TrEMBL record:
Keywords: Signal. Pfam families: DUF1800. Residues 1-26 form the signal peptide. It comes from Candidatus Dactylopiibacterium carminicum. PROSITE patterns: PROKAR_LIPOPROTEIN. The lineage of its organism: Bacteria, Pseudomonadati, Pseudomonadota, Betaproteobacteria, Rhodocyclales. This is DUF1800 domain-containing protein.
Length: 263
């Protein structure tokens, strides 16, 4: 954990350094101008008292303090509003939006909140369409991004993939394995988005790329065994669970027992 934290501090300092020549040295007390610029980039805006305090400390100490702060979550605030609803009523989307910005402006864990907003603009879900009434779930989605703001990308991507909100938005919730005998094809929506938008990006139609073992426009023909879980959602804010795994090869299909169930 200490090693990961060290890398996190270094990565954030390098990222901030790329944005401005005013970034102070990590272990040197900054000038007021440097402190102001640093806090503008690493938070939602500092007060004069916070700028003054940083001039008597260092960016590294500030980051370490921010890493140690507990997460300010939206879900605990949303739940009492949900409990007070009459039957058939839904929470207001504006309630959540107001809460997001109030938290951004006032929460002590400013670095986490800034990171969460940035992640929400990369891993995108929307109130438009099927997620329109799912305010509790969207609060849980935002909290999930916050929990993974300082971790590694693999854990973040798994949490995003197993979120019921992403499962609804990109349609892999309750997905089914392809079945040629019934004319059922796999839902490739999330698979496409996770590669094109969240990880490796779009391939380039450039023949020289093929010589360097890069992705080309040639369709992928899988010949290895693949496992596709059937996902189910236990609650709006809990990760989706795999009920069972369906393993398919070019010559056979075998359903394997296992997976998890909702409590």
């Amino acid at each position: 954990m200490k090693l990961r934290r060290t890398f996190s501090v270094a990565a954030l300092l390098m990222a901030l350094a790329a944005c401005s020549t005013l970034l102070p040295q990590a272990d040197t007390a900054p000038t007021p101008a440097e402190a102001s610029r640093f806090l503008q980039q690493a938070s939602f805006g500092p007060s004069m008292a916070e700028i003054q305090a940083l001039t008597h400390s260092t960016p590294r100490r500030w980051l370490e303090t921010q890493f140690a702060l507990p997460q300010t979550e939206l879900q605990p605030v949303i739940e009492p509003y949900h409990a007070a609803l009459a039957k058939g009523e839904n929470l207001s989307q504006q309630l959540l939006l107001d809460l997001v910005w109030k938290t951004a402006a006032t929460a002590p864990d400013q670095l986490r909140q800034r990171m969460t907003l940035a992640l929400s603009e990369i891993f995108v879900v929307s109130f438009d369409g099927s997620l329109s009434p799912r305010v509790r779930g969207m609060a849980g989605w935002y909290d999930m991004l916050g929990r993974n703001a300082f971790g590694n990308f693999r854990d973040l991507l798994e949490a995003v993939s197993r979120s019921p909100m992403m499962g609804v938005y990109l349609s892999h919730l309750k997905n089914q394995k392809e079945d040629p005998s019934r004319g059922r094809v796999p839902d490739e929506n999330y698979a496409r988005e996770v590669m094109q938008l969240f990880t490796i990006g779009l391939y380039e139609l450039n023949p020289p790329m093929a010589a360097r073992n890069c992705v080309t426009a040639t369709p992928w023909k899988p010949t290895v065994t693949r496992t596709s879980p059937a996902w189910r959602a236990c609650s709006p804010a809990s990760p989706m669970a795999a009920r069972a795994a369906v393993t398919a090869t070019s010559s056979s299909r075998v359903r394997t027992p296992g997976g998890t169930s909702c409590p």
